[in-house]
Write a structure and sequence with these properties.
heterodimer; A: 98 residues; alpha+beta; Potassium Channel Kv1.1, Chain A; 3-stranded mixed beta sheet; 47% helix; B: 612 residues; alpha/beta; 20-stranded parallel beta sheet; 15 helices; flat
């Protein structure tokens, strides 16, 4: 996998998730960060830090990105959400516009 | 019912009847927000409060619960102090005064509340006092609210929209509460039967733009007088009240003061609409008696451009109809169910801005329609130019131009026949024509073949046969075709293949067999299909149409369909209404199909008997 095809998402605790750029772009917010010309440091580094999103939630969000890509390709499975994560996940989803 | 007898529909009731939309698009991926909201809905009992969430998220959860009907007085508690803005609880089951505490806890954030159809009473309204930013309140069908309750909302001066439709208890006394609502622009008191004498309290509401007192049969001429100072009133609905010429004269005063107050004398761009109109069943007690002279002197007095005029069932005759010719700005004119004849139509030919004309059940014949058509040999561009720059000349040149903006023409139940249709062939903007219950026959239909904008055509009459349908094959843009009573046979259905865009089709003349349905099976845009009264159709028909997966409504009543044929309907996942009356189909078998394969089916016939 070439480096420019991936992006690094960093959680509040400093955990790094390296995922496909295509997957990360499911989030409208991340898409804007990565594609807006020049204005974000993230555009050059391919690295986005989320000081407000915990590792557990960020992991779940990465899972959603890949689930969403599969869904778009016709594999319509259920996406499981643990009840105890739901509220925090929803707030993160709201921020990430996804 | 299968609709054993022919019936009238499509009378331009666009507001009341939203078009059927196909509910497809299952393939769209749900957002994570939607998935979370859905999950919270499932586990709602786990949550005791959402007040720590940002407002937009708690609002979304609230909406999700309302839409799925999962919100109860218990789960509502979690929304206390959430700073929600909109609480749309109209027709929501179980809403009563107990809910008001949490509703009011949204405080100054609250902007819109709809509690229509709830059991909320006067004491429940006390809670709203502190929601001082409220802009819109809707209490339609809340019959436990009376004068005393209105007092509790009298200080909500940020209200711009207020609705109390069908309230029997509100009287003039209680309406004094409205006097302080100085920002009100829309007030809806439709069917409030006790408000006579109360409109005086509206005198100071100078921002009022829309007032609906339709069906308030207590409203008389004297009630119109206080309205004369409402300088911004643009829309007044008073049909089915007791207002007569005398009351209308007060309004004349209203509209003559408009330009004075604004210092404008010319034709202002201000548009307004008036809806008069009488009762369908015409009880003598409520019979309207507008004379056109009085009405028009008021309309002329108003310097705004009248765009919309509804005079349905107003007992109009041809006398005074020449006045219509001066209403050159009209876009919508409803003259249905009046005693007017062709002589009246002469005066409509100047209304070149008309987009919709309703002549349902009027004494109109072929000769009258000539006035809708232009004289195309003489329509030089220079004349068009004069028309555009000097509206004053409209009546003079109008007969040259024709009603070329006309999109919608209602001629149902008139004496219009084939020869009249030639006058319509030049009206290239026409999108909808209703010719049901006319004497139009096959020979006239070729006159419609050039109307390429046509989307909706109603030919529900017995004179129409396969031959007529053959003349219409060029109308490939048709989305709605009604051949309910037309005598269409299998050979005629071959022409239907040209109408690939059809979303609704009705052929109920009795002449169809399974062989004819073969030509319908490829019309994949169909969402409504009515083939009832064709008594020779069998289960084969259901098999043929099983590929029409966009179908939302299907009727094959009075046919030889049996329960065994129901299995062919399994792929029709969008089906919401299924009617198979007078067939060999048991209600229980449809119920089974609903449970196993058709979750969206909300209405089916035959129904299960109540004792089941």
């Amino acid at each position: 996998m070439k480096k420019e095809d991936t992006v690094k998402l960093i959680s509040a605790e400093g955990f790094e998730f390296v995922i496909d750029k295509e997957a990360a772009m499911v989030s409208q917010t991340i898409r804007n960060m990565l594609t807006s010309p020049g204005s974000f440091a993230e555009t050059q580094d391919g690295k986005v830090t989320f000081p407000e999103i915990s590792t557990t939630i960020l992991e779940k969000i990465c899972q959603y990105f890949y689930w969403s890509l599969q869904y778009a390709r016709g594999k319509e499975t259920d996406f499981h959400i643990e009840p105890e994560l739901t509220l925090e996940l929803m707030m993160a989803a709201n921020y990430l516009h996804t | 019912m299968g609709g054993a007898c022919s019936r009238k529909r499509g009378q331009l009731d666009h507001e009341d009847r939203p078009p059927l939309e196909i509910q497809r698009g299952q393939g769209k991926c749900p957002s994570l927000m939607e998935l979370c909201a859905h999950k919270i809905r499932e586990d709602i009992d786990r949550y005791s409060t959402f007040s720590m969430l940002p407002r937009d998220i708690s609002q979304q959860i609230f909406n999700e619960l309302v839409n799925s009907q999962r919100l109860t007085d218990i789960s509502l508690e979690a929304f206390r102090d959430c700073a929600l803005q909109d609480l749309y609880l109209g027709e929501y089951p179980g809403v009563n005064d107990k809910w008001m505490d949490v509703i009011a806890s949204q405080g100054s954030s609250l902007l819109c509340v709809d509690l229509s159809g709830s059991d909320v009473s006067n004491s429940g309204l006390i809670n709203l006092k502190d929601c001082t930013n409220l802009q819109s309140l809707n209490f339609n069908d809340c019959n436990q609210i009376s004068d005393c309750g209105l007092g509790h909302i009298s200080d909500l001066s940020n209200l711009t929209s207020l609705s109390f439709r069908r309230n029997n208890a509100i009287t003039a006394q209680g309406m004094s509460a409205f006097a302080g609502l100085i920002n009100l622009s829309k007030l809806d008191l439709e069917r409030c039967i006790g408000i006579h004498g109360g409109l005086g309290h509206l005198k100071g509401l100078t921002k009022l733009e829309s007032l609906n007192i339709k069906w308030c049969n207590c409203i008389t001429d004297s009630d119109m007088k206080p309205l004369s100072g409402l300088r911004n009133l643009k829309s007044l609905q008073i049909s089915c009240s007791k207002v007569t010429d005398v009351g209308i004269t007060y309004l004349k005063a209203t509209w003559t003061t408009i330009p004075l107050c604004h210092g404008e004398w010319g034709r202002s761009a201000k548009a307004f609409s008036i809806e008069f109109g009488g009762l369908p069943s015409d009880g003598c007690m409520l019979r309207l008696s507008f004379s056109l002279n009085i009405l028009f002197s008021c309309i002329y007095a108003a310097l705004g451009d009248l765009l919309y005029l509804n005079l349905n069932r107003c007992h109009l005759s041809d006398d005074g109809c020449e006045k219509f010719s001066r209403l050159g700005s009209l876009k919508v004119l409803n003259l249905g169910f009046n005693d007017i004849t062709d002589a009246c139509l002469v005066h409509l030919k100047g209304l070149t801005n008309l987009e919709s004309l309703n002549l349902d059940s009027c004494g109109i014949g072929d000769d009258g329609l000539v006035n809708l058509a232009g004289d195309y040999f003489n329509s030089f561009p220079v004349i068009t130019f004069i028309y555009l720059s000097r509206p004053f000349f409209i009546p003079i040149y109008a007969n040259v131009l024709g009603l070329y903006h006309l999109k919608c023409l209602e001629l149902s139940d008139t004496q219009v026949g084939s020869s009249g249709l030639r006058h319509l062939s030049g009206l290239a903007s026409l999108e909808s024509i209703n010719l049901s219950f006319t004497v139009v026959a096959d020979g006239g239909l070729r006159r419609l073949s050039g109307l390429s904008s046509l989307k909706s055509l109603n030919l529900d009459n017995r004179q129409i046969t396969d031959t007529g349908l053959a003349a219409l094959t060029s109308l490939t843009g048709l989305t709605h075709l009604d051949l309910f009573g037309a005598r269409i046979t299998d050979s005629g259905t071959t022409y239907l293949r040209n109408f690939k865009n059809l979303r609704s089709l009705e052929i109920c003349g009795g002449g169809l067999t399974d062989a004819g349905v073969k030509h319908i099976k490829d019309l994949t845009s169909l969402s409504l299909l009515n083939l009832s009264q064709n008594s020779n159709l069998t289960d084969k028909t259901l098999e043929l149409i099983s590929g029409l997966t966009g179908l939302v409504s299907l009727n094959v009543s009075n046919s030889r369909i049996t329960s065994a044929g129901l299995r062919h309907l399994k792929p029709l996942k969008n089906l919401r209404s299924l009617t198979l009356e007078s067939c060999k189909v048991a209600a229980n078998d449809i119920k089974k199909l609903q449970l196993s394969d058709l979750p969206d089916l909300v209405s089916f016939r035959p129904e299960l008997s109540p004792s089941y």
